[in-house]
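Translate structure to sequence.
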């Protein structure tokens, strides 16, 4: 009994979780003696049982504590990745407003009568705008792919470290995967809109620039 008592003392005084261990031991003692009239006698007789239950309950506590810690780590990384993914879109969100504005400017600035130089300048400006926006969009797609690769790597590490929690980790990271796919589709849609914007502007230029029309018709006739 002496060795068991010493073991209980060591159990409550050794790190880590000393306070939690004492709470666990207190709960076990109360649970064992609460239905006995002679509580002290019951306590003395049940030292071994108290020791086993305290150790078992502590093992359960450590398991739950570890899971909570892992879950917090997963949620932290999940939030971090989603913020970085969202930032790839936020970085160009204001610039996207320039796409419809560019169409309006092109329509308003193109001169139907004797506007070859002016119209050519408008087309050139739209071409530069489309090129720069295309490069920016491509760069954001690349950033998204880099984040995706890092996310896959972090997910693989967590699944190796905590194999028993594989399904929970996969479920937590699925939101990141969906967000990444959604933004990638959005960026490709933006690229298509940019191309259509340029084609529309070019059609306006071709239709409303007399000198260009004459030159194009002459070139076609000579061919």
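Result:
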């Amino acid at each position: 009994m002496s060795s068991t008592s010493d073991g209980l003392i060591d159990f409550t005084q050794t790190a880590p979780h000393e306070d939690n261990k004492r709470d666990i031991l207190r709960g076990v003692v109360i649970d064992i003696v609460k239905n006995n009239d002679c509580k002290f006698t019951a306590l003395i007789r049940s030292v071994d049982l108290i020791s086993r239950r305290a150790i078992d309950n502590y093992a359960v506590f450590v398991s739950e504590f570890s899971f909570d810690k892992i879950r917090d780590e997963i949620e932290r990384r999940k939030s971090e990745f989603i913020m970085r993914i969202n930032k790839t879109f936020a970085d160009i969100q204001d610039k996207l407003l320039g796409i419809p504005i560019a169409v309006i400017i092109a329509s308003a600035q193109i001169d139907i009568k004797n506007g070859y130089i002016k119209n050519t300048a408008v087309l050139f400006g739209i071409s530069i705008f489309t090129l720069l926006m295309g490069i920016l969009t491509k760069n954001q797609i690349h950033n998204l792919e880099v984040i995706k690769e890092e996310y896959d790597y972090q997910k693989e590490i967590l699944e190796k470290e905590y194999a028993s929690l594989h399904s929970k980790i996969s479920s937590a990271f699925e939101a990141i995967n969906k967000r990444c796919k959604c933004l990638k589709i959005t960026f490709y849609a933006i690229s298509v809109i940019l191309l259509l914007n340029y084609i529309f502007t070019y059609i306006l230029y071709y239709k409303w620039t007399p000198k260009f029309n004459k030159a194009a018709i002459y070139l076609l006739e000579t061919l």
